[in-house]
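Internal tracking record. Fields below are filled automatically when a chain is submitted to the structure queue. Please do not edit lines marked as system-generated. If the sequence contains nonstandard residues, flag them in the REMARKS field before resubmitting.
Queue: standard
Priority: normal
Entity type: single polypeptide chain
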Amino acid sequence: MTPDPIRRSSSGSASRLPSRPLAGSVVARRAREAAGERTVLAGLVLLALTASGFAGYAISTGTHGYDVQAVLPAGMAPFAWKKTVAQGRLADPDFDPVTTGSLPDRPVAPGPQVPAEPPAPPPALSAGTYTLRGVADGVATVESREGRLTVSLGSTLPGAGRVLSIRQTGAGWVVITTETIIGPAS
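SYSTEM-GENERATED OUTPUT FOLLOWS
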């Protein structure tokens, strides 16, 4: 073991310093770690710049014919992201409360033509013959010459069409049908 170095103070007295043989190796290890961290950080910054530069180049030029469809089998349909706006546009939703998810009736196969008498049309009522008498829990009571009827959303009133809405307005309750608006008696 090496003797401890002697330190001389300004007063001339000598004192012994504790020996630290590992101090130099600790400093060297910290310097290596700092250099490694700087190298990794520089690599990540370079990678980020390269990726953003490539993306910018691909967006700005945009003339490359990259097409995945060329490598797919012939029977595959085009991808959704390859469709134009008109091809991808959906039909307007039908918010009619009477509409269900059922399929339309199949057309009847042509058979022997038998002349049938047309059914007698129901007596047509004018839309002005209905009067709103009351509304409770989304069900309206309307009155006509034939009597009182209770209707709800989607019901059909003869001569006034299908009920689209039953709502309260500033003037009171109204029933809105496909043909008219029915309100309380004035």
